[in-house]
Structure formats: C-alpha cells, structure tokens
Amino acid sequence: NAGVTQTPKFQVLKTGQSMTLQCAQDMNHNSMYWYRQDPGMGLRLIYYSASEGTTDKGEVPNGYNVSRLNKREFSLRLESAAPSQTSVYFCASKGVAGAADTQYFGPGTRLTVL
Amino acid sequence: AQSVTQPDIHITVSEGASLELRCNYSYGATPYLFWYVQSPGQGLQLLLKYFSGDTLVQGIKGFEAEFKRSQSSFNLRKPSVHWSDAAEYFCAVGARAGNMLTFGGGTRLMVKP
Prior knowledge:
heterodimer, A: four-stranded antiparallel beta sheet, 0% helix
C-alpha cells in the first residue's frame, strides 16, 4: 500500500496563476483533509471531506476550492495564486467518521508563489 | 472552539538525556489527543494517541505521554533521547463528536552529540 500520495512534490507559480494539487489514498478511508503548514503556526485545516460527495470548510478556506473526485481522490485548487499561499500543503485521510481514528499524512507539496 | 498550545518553539537536549515536550489544550470536555512527529522534508507520523482509559499512553520509538485532565495537558516524554529523534513534534486535539483536528504550533527538537 502506498498510503497517501501527493503530486506534485514541488511547484513554483507566479501570482495569478492557477494550479491543482492532487491527493490519493489507497486505504479505503472515508475522510480526507487538506492542511497548510507555515512556520510557527502548525498545521491549519483548509478543507475536508468527511465522506465521498461531501466537502466542508476548515479554518483557512479563502482562496481555495476542493473536489472529492471519488473515495480515493481529493484535490485542492488555487484559482488565482497569491504570495500569501506560499506554504507546504499536506493531504491526510482517516478511516472512520468522528475523531476516534488516526489521520495518515502524505509527504507534502511545497508551493512557492512569486 | 478547541485550541492547542505548545509553549516551547525550540528545545535542545544532549543525546542520552531525558525529554519532555509540553502540550496544553483548551476544550470543554475530554478530547482525543495526539502527538505527531515530522522529520525534515517528510509528512507527519503518529507517535501516540489518547482516547480513554489509562492516562499514561505508550507510543512508538520509546515515547510516552500522560493526560492530566486537571492541568489540561498532554506532555510527551522520552527517558533517553537519540540523535535520530531530532525533528518537529506536533500535539493535536480532536473533538469526540467531530472530524477535525486542531494542531499546536509545533516544537522543534535538536539533539546535541
């Protein structure tokens, strides 16, 4: 099992460009998450999907959109990138509804917006 | 709303010394509590978690943590640190009725030879 995979690993964008970060999990998990990590701020939740067909905003959703394409895949889209979106982005998945299970993380995407 | 505070941004310990990383949380009921570790350039790996029962929980790599309800704390400990423990450590809290985790700001551990 590959666990949680993310593509790309690195990306440099110019202000105003758009891109989609891809995430896939092969653990048959119901819930998937997108976080951003910035120095000294830990991980902050952008969006999550509790189950296939549902998505909800997290703590910092502005400037992002998500799509739960199927049970395996959860993508994050930046429609018009801004320098404030320079960050490391992590995708995670979790097996059962509710907080009683472990979130498993992907290796991250390092995004720089110039 | 739940929150997590990790008061120490950086900690340096000598190899072989003991370690304690602090975590304080704010939540109205008994939460789910987690410690994750992140090695440089990597994703997060679960060290241990507390759901209920024994307040002292054992994790991987020789780590343990103790849930103290009266102090709203969940401190991470290790009796003897190895150079490979150098990493960033994150405490997280989850509501029992919810799907989300709230993370602390992290503590970066450096290990002196």
